[in-house]
Amino acid sequence: MSDTTPESTELPAELVAVDTNAATVTLAVDATIYPLQALYGASYIFIDRCFVFIDRPEEGRFRVVLSPKDAKPEPEALRALVGEFANELLSCAWRHQITQDNRVAIETVTMQAIAGAMGEPSLDDLAAFDFSDEAFDDPLGIAQSWEEKHGKKTPSEPPPADAGDEPRAAAEQPAAEQPAAVSDGAGAAQ
Amino acid sequence: MKALIKVGYACNEHCSFCHTLEVRHIDGPTAEIDAKIRRAAALGHSMVVLSGGEPTIRPELMHWARLTASLGLDFGLVTNGQMLAYPQIVEPLLANRLRYVYLSLHGGTPKVHNLMVRSDAFDNAFAAVRNLAGRGLDFSVNCVITRHNVEHLKGLVDLLLPYPDLMVKFSMVEPKGGGDKLFRHLMPRVEHVARRVHEAITYGLERAAGRGPRFTHGAIPLCLLPGLEDLFDDLKTHQYRTMIEVGERDFFPVDDRNKTHTEKCRGCALQGPCPGLYRGYQEEYGDDELRPVTGRPRSNSFNYRLEGRLAATDAERCPLLDGLGVTPWDRARSLFVKNGARLARYRAETRDFSDGELEVIKHERGQIYVDVSRKDAPDDFARDLVQLRRSALCDGCAERNHCTGLFEPVFEDVFSRDDERVRALLRELTGDVLDVGCGEGPYSDILAPLASAARIRYTGIDPDARRVAELQRRWPWAELHARAAESLAAPERDRDRDPLAARHFDHVVILRSWNHLRDPARALAAICERLKPGGTLTIVDNVAFGLARTRAQTRRGESSAAELEHYRNHDAGEAHALASRPALTLLERRDVTPQTSNQWLLRYARVDDDARERVAARG
User: Fold this and answer.
1) Complex-level ipTM
2) For testing contact with chain A, the best of B17, B36, B57, B147 (most A CBs within 10 A)
3) Chain A within 8 Å of B185 (Cβ-Cβ)?
4) Does the predicted TM-score (pTM) go above 0.80?
């Protein structure tokens, strides 16, 4: 029968459970404190000594089970193992934070180095470059000109041949058709 | 140090006052914008700011942000903000060094803003404000004021009060593009705009109580915003150095040539930082609304701060023509100094002088010096300053009249040379002499022997009682009075108590104190009354000048507690225009030129009134 009662008051019972029968130690990890990348980093350090199992039993919480590959370890050894893991996890989380903080600087230096090594692209390179795959996801349809959105002509475009009775000045000067509305609206807002 | 690049003029809004109304169909090709970003880096800028049109609707936006960051520069946007309502666009821009956003929001409610921009845009623009606030950006919200939102400025203040890292700017609409085409419909009177802006900023400052956004104003004459003069804001306060439109081959410095200071502004103490009026506005409405501020002292010098030494150049070739370029450098504020093969670049950021004044000082009068002293402010010009003049390489150059120019040191003591004429005139003095603004008595070696030999009876006046007492200790032979020149025009009833009321003089000298007089016209009228017929009046003073200084010198100088003493920086022409009157005949005039020091001289003779009347009667 497994004994899942903590065998030492040094380890917080709500976070650590040592199973001497199964020779495993289980650590609960708060996902709001430790990012998953830090958990991966810490686990990687232990894969030569332990089998490491990670799962997420509930939202916001990871569970890590360490099972030493060696012969059945003493409870003291299990407690030392999980303590060591916790420290490594903290170290990885802190390094992850530093990396995040310095990411722009690191990327900038790296990009400068790479750009310098490659030399400047030629104008032909740039002219041939397809930017369409970098275009934004624009579900609200914001990224289109006012003229496109409202089906208006730009100042450079001549009026269509079949413009009919529409006055030429009004067709060519969309700005001139709006002032009354602007004036009324601003006045009404008082 | 920002470079402003216009990427094209298409826009997803259609503001009634749109600057680029006529060219909205033009978009800059990608390769052209890429090349301009690289050029901005090569010119030494620290940030590229994209504008338009609306730059954020270009699909290359992220590419340009990445390219800019890859060159080691920060990235900025002048935008209507709609696309920045998408967090998925804001986040990668921030990761690619987005550090500056200048966002348009023209009203505090959808009704006002949407009608100004003629689009359903308010919700997106305000979402962008929420996305960008608190992200460590240099973040401004600009409100352009037309007749249609001028009564709604406090609504915008209320909306933005919860965002303490914002700068909220109120800008007078420019008569350009739509603002020109719909001038009568859009253009409010500037005095009314100033009143409403003053109310809105005062309201915002009170409501924020030090915990809300900052407030600024733009393109409104400072004389109309008493108490808020220091809150002016323009391209220069935002550290823009250069800009480039679509199709232009190279960058140009930002300038204020779309605005003007009128004749009414002459002598206004606020002229340096003041935007003046938009030219189009002044042509239509005139300058009746301006209220020039006089009676405040102003600076008489400014600094060109060393920005860096450039690589050694061929002494026989112009480095500006040879790669640095001509157009990117501000004709007045940039300064290139060449000494043999060595080349240094300086920059003047002063707002004590307008761009027009700086150009006159640098190019027309040639009053630029290298400060070779280690003082906060040079006080012995002959020893402390080395004059700079246009290089011989500029002679005959086709770019000469619009280039910032190449300057070289002239190792000649121009100050002592030009002052020798003043000393010669003083040596010739005889009889009763009045020295207006005697100060610290700079010509003791000439005046003391003349007084000892009884050739002159010297009387000096100066408003600074401490200086007068000190000079009296050194000059026991002199009759000194602590009083201003203007007080010579005392009312008739006070003349019994005035020891100088009945005195008349053979010679009056105003030696480097003309620009210190609060009211030179009044002072001069009184001086003329004291001048005997045939007597002389000699006026000598200096024009403003620029000092090329190291960063440490500039820092020391700008932190100095020295008080300003000049009420104007007249040259000989301006002083003569004020001094000229029937009672005086001009004997001698020496102007300031690039070949002289900054000292000018005017000398007049008092006309004999009786003789003049006889001549008039005959005429």
Assistant:
1) 0.70
2) B57
3) yes
4) no
